[in-house]
């Protein structure tokens, strides 16, 4: 009877998120794949296999693998010293620098691409390097966007690392390098590999960076799916690439799941306080300065471009945000798009939090048997799938599957927030799972023995532990929603655009005024996301999802 009751509770908690993902993730992705495999009402898998044999597809896959692997290696090598400095050392401005390093991750990838074009272009501060339009520019963009993943993930693990094994090794005569190589790095290996796998995943699905910096010469799987679906209408090729991408995502998520360590709630750990900077820390400080420069230089160049009008300093581009741009480039003023983005982000945040809390509770409750444990593991992997599936595929799937009764949601104001909530859901889950898993189950048992029901036990035992991470991940989901572009670009209406969509539309219209407005709007978006992330950082939550 108790086992049956546990199974019923598991089914009840999992029902809502499973139904939501089935309707708003599985159905759109399956609809996209169906369009590719079924031609004129006939199942034709041979055409998709023919696509995978094309020389261009081979080039696209090779470039995606090469650029993702190279960017992952560089981001990891830069991120490890920065993680140590920003999470284990104590110096003025450390918290602000952590926010600065994190902000690019929540910026739209298209904006990141534009900022780097401003930096690396012929008239930019680093134009003399000749990197504009090269694979090197794409690598810089991918590292710029993803180094924060390594800093945050490894930094959180480093911050909570028990210092006693390293101190014991040092007391036995080990040098600092030997302690790092034989004690610290092995302890951090799960976090490092997990961060690297997520960085590779994000690099392989980076849309705006490759689209903006690669031009016509370079294309990744993500940009190729976009080209095939929106311009060439070659859905078979898009379906084939989507399947390849989905399989890669499943493998990477399975690897991350095997390496993820669930905290033991009965084990007490000694968490060290940040220590002052020593002379031996100078090399790591130098690498951290390089990481900060990599983040700050493009953003300063972006700000400079927004403030320069006809060779003079001016706020005219920011004042123009109250208009629809030159030659009425937009249907609504940019300020209205800012308000729309804010409203959508609020809806996307409460949706992702509601689903994320349910999922986190489902996957962290103690299993009563092998079958239940396996079901929870499968559910955990299922809810992580939106993490790496192409936002372009998801948005296009929404467009072609949710356009007829009983799911005709084309005019629903909740369509865009739903898509953005799915993008943020894995981050919410990955933040709350370790927090809930770290609660000693004996506390829940004690509350139940005193007569507390499930809701009362949640309020008394879990809410005091989870409220700060919950607020932090709400801020992060809000920032991600503000900057989401891939799926939103397919779904948003012309009269209700979001700020990232407006920026891209301004960039696509001729005229210096429209370009200047795009730069000014990008600065506004960077400031908004930066302010949100600064508030999140003040909550002092050790880890944020995949970050």
How would you characterize the overall build of this protein?
Strands 1-2 form a two-stranded antiparallel ribbon. Strands 3-4 form a two-stranded parallel sheet. Strands 5-6 form a two-stranded antiparallel sheet. The protein has 547 residues and is an all-alpha fold. Helix content is 72%, strand content 3%. The chain has helices at residues 2-37, 45-52, 55-88, 94-102, 109-120, 135-159, 164-171, 176-204, 208-214, 221-230, 235-259, 282-307, 316-319, 334-364, 370-384, 391-401, 415-437, 441-449, 454-483, 488-491, 499-507, 512-538, and strands at 38-39, 42-43, 89-90, 275-276, 308-309, 312-313, 403-404, 407-408. The relative contact order is 0.14. The protein folds into two domains: 1-39 and 315-547, MetI-like fold (Orthogonal Bundle); 44-261 and 286-312, MetI-like (MetI-like fold), CATH 1.10.3720.10. It is globular and about 70 Å long. A hairpin with a 2-residue loop joins strand 1 and strand 2 (42-43).
Mean pLDDT: 79
CATH superfamily of the largest domain: MetI-like
The rough form would be described as globular
Q: What structural category characterises the helix and strand content?
A: mainly alpha
Total strand segments: 8
Proportion of residues in helical segments? over 70%
- Beta-strand percentage range: under 5%
Q: Helix segment count? A: 22
Strand line-up of the largest beta sheet: 1-2
Poorly predicted segments: 262-268
Q: How is the main sheet built?
A: 2 strands, antiparallel
Write down the Rg: 24 Å
